Amino acid sequence: MDELSLEVRGLAFAYPDGTQALFGVDASIARGERVALLGPNGAGKTTFVLHLNGILAGGSGSVKVAGLPVDPKDKKSLREIRRRVGVVFQDPDDQLFMPTVREDVAFGPANLGMRGPELEARVTAALERVGMGHVADRAPQHLSFGQRRRVAVATVLAMEPEILVLDEPSSNLDPASRRELAEILLDLDVTILMVTHDLPYAAQLCPRSMIMSGGVIAADGKTRDLLADPALLAEHRLELPYGFHPDSLPEAP
Ligand SMILES: Nc1ncnc2c1ncn2[C@@H]1O[C@H](COP(=O)(O)OP(=O)(O)OP(=O)(O)O)[C@@H](O)[C@H]1O
């Protein structure tokens, strides 16, 4: 098995209207790393993430997930790529559409052909990892936003992904739900790429961060070092919350 969960080389992409969003992105993430992807609005973060499972393609460069190239023309390998790259979207309602939580979490593995006790065990394990076993028989739309986000994480974990990609995981969460999700994520034994504008969350969860700006990776290093560099932050329109000092946090584990 490849030691890299993700390897991106020279990724460039323009939308059909001609907007060039990525200008040659190079990025590698080792298995088991937790990395934050930071950057101002319009930097190209979403465009980048949509290339990781082949939703966007057609530019130049390459993306490999655990050594397997993302090739949208190869339907069989794309299926495997979509199992390996688990994307948790910002809005859980984009991810939850079945009558019960259990069916939502079972949907992906069932699609891969899993049935019976094996499927049940997979669903139970995924829900337990996010502390949501007790809502398995409830309707997703009757859960709180924070609960729905956790269930959305479970739907992805049920696929046993190589890399968990989280788009703004802390958005719309109250402080307690935000902290509880951080504890859950820190406990997972999976490679994580987290797109976020929440710099303290990046500092808490991700030892390493990449700053995307103007369609390239403008900086890549220890989260604490990047956040302690006011000139770098200002250059890329990143701002720490009022009163927040990166030195006040222990380094992410
Ligand atoms: N469907 C589209 N068609 C044309 N241009 C697009 C499209 N989607 C995004 N863009 C452009 O591509 C660039 C990168 O946008 P992208 O959404 O990837 O940035 P982002 O870093 O995710 O921003 P945000 O933090 O606001 O989510 C921007 O210039 C944006 O206007």
The largest sheet is: 6 strands, mixed
CATH superfamily: P-loop containing nucleotide triphosphate hydrolases
Mean pLDDT: 95
Question: Could you tell me the radius of gyration in angstroms?
Answer: 18 Å
CATH topology-level name: Rossmann fold
N-end to C-end Cα span: 25 Å
**Beta-strand segment tally:** 10
Oligomer: single chain
What is the total number of structural domains?
1
Protein name: ABC transporter ATP-binding protein
Membrane topology: Peripheral membrane protein
Organism: Actinocorallia longicatena
Keywords: ATP-binding, Cell membrane, Membrane, Nucleotide-binding, Translocase, Transport
Task: Give structural notes.
By secondary structure, the chain is of the alpha/beta class. It has one domain: P-loop containing nucleotide triphosphate hydrolases (Rossmann fold, 3-Layer(aba) Sandwich), CATH 3.40.50.300. Helix content is 34%, strand content 25%. The chain contains 9 helices and 10 strands. It has helices at 45-52, 75-84, 101-111, 116-129, 145-157, 175-187, 199-205, 223-227, 230-235; strands spanning 4-14, 20-30, 34-38, 60-65, 68-69, 85-88, 163-167, 191-195, 208-213, 216-222. Strands 6-7-8-3-9-10 form a 6-stranded mixed beta sheet, sandwiched between helices. The chain has a 4-stranded antiparallel beta sheet with strand order 2-1-4-5, covered by helices on one side. A hairpin with a 2-residue loop joins strand 4 and strand 5. The protein is globular. The mean pLDDT is 95. Bound molecules: adenosine-5'-triphosphate (ATP). Adenosine-5'-triphosphate binds at residues 15, 17, 19, 21, 39, 41-47. Adenosine-5'-triphosphate is lined by residues 15, 17, 19, 21, 39, 41-47. One of its GO terms (molecular function) is ATP binding. It is a peripheral membrane protein. Keywords: ATP-binding, Cell membrane, Membrane, Nucleotide-binding, Translocase, Transport. This is ABC transporter ATP-binding protein. Probably part of an ABC transporter complex. Responsible for energy coupling to the transport system. Part of an ABC transporter complex. Responsible for energy coupling to the transport system.
